[in-house]
Each structure stands twice: as C-alpha cells, then as structure tokens.
Design brief:
By secondary structure, the protein is α/β, with parallel strands linked by helices. The protein has a single domain (22-257), classed as Metallo-dependent phosphatases (Purple Acid Phosphatase, chain A, domain 2), CATH 3.60.21.10. Helix content is 28%, strand content 24%. The chain contains 7 helices and 13 strands. The protein has helices spanning 2-8, 13-19, 43-56, 85-102, 112-120, 127-132, 172-181; strands at 24-26, 29-32, 60-64, 105-109, 142-143, 148-153, 156-161, 184-187, 193-197, 204-208, 232-237, 240-246, 253-257. Strands 5-4-3-2-11-12-13 form a 7-stranded mixed β-sheet. The longest helix is centred in the middle third of the chain and has 18 residues, at 85-102. The relative contact order is 0.18.
C-alpha cells in the first residue's frame, strides 16, 4: 500500500480507474445481441440469431449486459429456476460454449442483472469473477465492469450501453445519450427494439431489443406500465446497422430494417 501511495498518492481514484475500463472495439462486421436473461431466454430465437450471423459471415459479438438473469440474487420475486445458482451457471455455460463455437470474439459489459450478483457479494467480486464461474477459457471472451462499450465500425463511432434508465417512448433514452455524448448510440435494458435518429438528426440511435423470452420474465407477466417489449438484435456491417425483430410465438425473424 505504501508503494501504491508513493506512486499514485492517497487519492483512491486509481483503484476506480483500474476497475472500470470500457472496451473499445474496432470491427466493420459485428453483431449486437443484448438482454439474454439466461435461463429465461428464447432458445429458438437464439438459434435463428446464430444462423443469421453465419449467413452474413459475422464472427464477432457484442453482448451489452444482462446475459445472466441472476434470479437467485434478485431482491424481488424469485422464480426459483431449479432452486439454485449452480443450475443457472450451468445454463449460461452451455450458451456461452455454443457462442464461442460460432464467434471468434465475444465482448460483454455489465448489466443491472449481473450487478445483482456483484451487489450480493458486497462489491468484492466483479464481472471477471462472475464469468470465471463458467470455467471457460478466458481468451474466448472479454468482459468489462463498465455498463458500456465503444465501437468503431467503418469510421463510425457507437456508444453501446446498458444504462440505468428506460422510458416508455422507444429510442428516447438513446436520443438523450446521443445528444449528451455526441455519438451514435445503441441502448440495452429497456427491452425495446427500434431504430431512429437523434433529435438534431446527426446521429443514429437504436434500442437493442433482446434475446429474452417475454413469457418467462416474471415482471412482464404482471399488469404494469412498463414499456411494451420487443425482442431483436442488430448486425453492424460496414458501419450500417441492420435490425432483426423477434416476431414472437412463431419464433421467426422479421421486420428487417437497414
């Protein structure tokens, strides 16, 4: 500690800077698939997602938060999925193994559901420790404790984020972030799927949708005023975003947008 203080001083900021280091990704061809909420994900839609990426030659993947549901660490209603966190670990591992088979690089940031586990362990362990539970080769994926990542694709810059906020109006959070950070924005967390432009018309904005199964998420089965959800994912090809929507019970991809 004395050596650290001699180098950095007594200011604890260096500890924070070391823990938080958002990923900066450069790729002209990459997929964005958010909010899996494993084990409460749509298995058929996930299979269609992988097929689509193979058809398009996509070998890199961004998962902007909430890959895990961490239901056993929830402060709210527990769905009690097989009654133990070990079962959830096994399910996440099986999905990650399949993704690693199809993608050369996988990038993940923290969502509010991974934060359940981090908070449940009093902040003493983070994303690396959580994913270490999968016992997979660490070189097969890259994680960050931040709730966002940066993407540069064909000279176009994106903020890919899992913000704390969500709103009823699609893309409204993404528009606020685009105006604040002056960049193109793709947001997860809201479980909406939509594309648009920023208020000033200078930036592209997107709601990331998600790979979740809306019929399996407990809070979506209640009568509430949450935004209407829509699953989906995006492919970024040469800086341009192509959106694919989950059409629901038929589990077919539709509503493609460019």
């Amino acid at each position: 500690m004395r050596k650290q203080r001699q180098k950095f001083g007594r200011e604890p900021r260096y500890l924070i800077d070391k823990s938080f280091a958002p990923l900066c990704i450069r790729s002209d061809t990459i997929a964005i698939a958010a909010d899996w909420h494993i084990p409460f994900y749509d298995r058929n839609f996930a299979a269609e997602f992988i097929i689509t990426c193979e058809d398009q030659g996509i070998r890199e993947l961004i998962i902007p938060g909430d890959l895990w549901d961490c239901d056993n660490y929830s402060k709210f209603v527990h769905l009690g999925w097989r009654d133990c966190f070990r079962a959830e670990i096994d399910e996440v591992r099986s999905v990650m193994v399949e993704l690693i088979e199809h993608f050369d690089k996988i990038y993940l940031c923290r969502g509010n559901h991974e934060k359940r586990w981090i908070d449940g362990n009093f902040g003493m362990m983070g994303m690396r420790e959580l994913f270490a539970l999968l016992e997979l080769p660490p070189r097969s994926y890259t994680v960050t404790l931040d709730d966002h990542m940066y993407l540069e694709s064909n000279g176009k810059e994106w903020l890919i984020a899992h913000p704390r906020s969500f709103r009823q109006t699609p893309c409204s959070v993404a528009r606020v972030l685009a105006n604040k950070y002056l960049t193109n924005v793709c947001t997860a967390h809201g479980h909406q799927w939509e594309q648009g432009i920023s208020t000033g018309g200078h930036f592209d904005v997107m709601d990331a949708g998600g790979m979740f199964d809306p019929y399996a998420l407990e809070y979506l089965r209640q009568t509430n005023t949450y935004p209407a959800v829509q699953g989906g994912f995006y492919l970024i090809i040469d800086g341009k975003a192509e959106g694919y929507r989950n059409d629901g019970p038929k589990h077919k991809i539709g509503g493609r947008k460019k």
